[in-house]
# Entry
Amino acid sequence: MASTIAAGVLANPIPGINPAFSAAPIRWLAHPTQQNEQVVIDLVSRYGISVYLFAPVTLDTLGRQFDRFAPVLVSAQRPPHAVQFSVQGWYRERANRAQRAAMTAALREWLTAKVTEAPHEGTERIVGPPEAIANQILEMRLRAAEALGDWRDTLALPQLKAMSKTVPRGHQILIHAMRRITDPSGADVFLVEENGRVVQRRPHSELDSMTVTCWDPLTSGKELWHVDRSGLQRIWKTLSDGSELRVHESPTTTAFTFTKLDLFFHDGLAAHLEGVSGTWDYMDNGGRQSRHLSITNRALLDAMLAELARAHRSPHQPRFVSESVTLLISRNELRVRGVYQFEGAVGGWLSLLYPTASDRGHGPAQIERVALHPLHQMDTKLLCGLEGTAPQHRILLRPGDVSDYELEVDYRQSLSGRRARYLVTTARAWGRPLRHAQFFVSVDSQLGTPHFPMHFDEAEPSRGQRRFFFDAAPFSPDTDLVVSW
# Structure
C-alpha cells in the first residue's frame, strides 16, 4: 500500500529564499510571542537551517543573538519535531556547555518518546499506512542517535545499546554512533576541521583493500582495478591532502572524467569516493544517514592516475591491442619483424620498453628499423625514435592526436644454439589480453623439424623454408614463443 502524504501549510522555499520565512526569526527576536516562536520552530524543524531558507542577514543576526535563539532550536529538535542535521551542525559550532546539555537532552528524548504521528518534513507529512508512519518515526530516532554520536554524548550510551538490540533496521547507525562516543579518534574515516581541512581518522593498518574504478572511453565502460599493496600505500598518503568543498566554491575541471575509489576496512567499514576532475563525493556504510561530504583533493586524483598508468589501466594511456610478428630462423640468426597496434592518443612523447631475449645462445638484438604511422595509412609517418641498448631498448613514440596507430620494429639476433626465443609474455604487463595476435615462423628446412610451445599450423613450404602460423583472438600468453629444433 502506498504512503499517504498530507500537504503542509508552508510552501516549499527551495530554490528561492521566501521573504516571509527569512523575516520570521527577526520578527520573533523583536516580538517574542508564543505564536511567533511556534512559526520559527515549525520552519526550522521542517527545513533546517540553510542559505536556501534564511537570507544572509537573517543568519548573521541569529548567530549574533545565538543565546536567545538557542532554546528555540532545542524546541525545534524535541519530539515530535524532525531532527535536522543542518540544525545540529549550526548549533554545535556555537553552543556552550549548558546549551550542549539542553540539545543532547532533547535528542535523547527521541530515543524513547512515545510518538504516534510522523513529523513534518518540508511541505509533506506521512499520515498512513501505519507501517509507513512507524518507519518515519524510526528514521527520526536513528537521526537522533547519529546526532548524539556526533555530540559524543556518553549519557546516551545505555539507550543506544538497548536500541541496537531491538530496532528492525539501522543497526550500523547505532553501532557507529556508539563508537563515535567511545572511540572518537577511530570511528570515522575522515573528519573535517573548522578550517575545512579533511583529516584521516583511521590508521593505515585497518585498511584491508582498495579498488579504483574509472571510465574507459575506448570501451565505453568501467574499468576496475584492485590496487596492489605498494599502490595502496601511495594513494592512502594523499587522502589527507584535501579540503571540504564549500557551497560557494566551484570544482576544478580537467579532461579527466569519472573515477571511483573504494576503501575496505578489516572491521567491515566500506568507504567510497566518487570524483570528477579532482572533486570527490564521499560516503560510507559507517552509520551516517545524511552526511554529504564533498572534498577537493587534486593530489588524490594525481596519485590514482599515476597508479593506473603504472598498472597500464589508465584511460589516458595508449593501449596495446594486437600484434602480427614474423620470425625468420636460419642456422645462425633470428630476424624479427613485428607490427604492433595501439589505441588511445597521448599528447606528447611516449616511452615504451621493448625487451628482447637475452638467453644463452642469443646475441644482443640489433634494431634496424622503427616506424610509426596511423592505422591503415602507411604513407603518413609519425615521429618516433630509439634509445637504450639490448636487451632493454626503449622506443620513443609521438602519435599526437591520432587515436589508432601502428608501430613497426625490425631487429636481428645471432644464434649459437638450437633454439630461438621471442618474448610475448611481456604483453601481460599491459594488464589485459591482446585483442588479436598472429605469428608467422619460417625455419630453414635444413634445421629439421621445429617444436613450438603452442599449437602452430604448417603452411606450404617455400624456397627451402618450412612455414608455420598461429592465430589467436583474444591472446593472453602464459609462455614465450620458443622455437627449438
In short: The first strand starts at residue 4 and ends at 7. The radius of gyration is 33 Å.
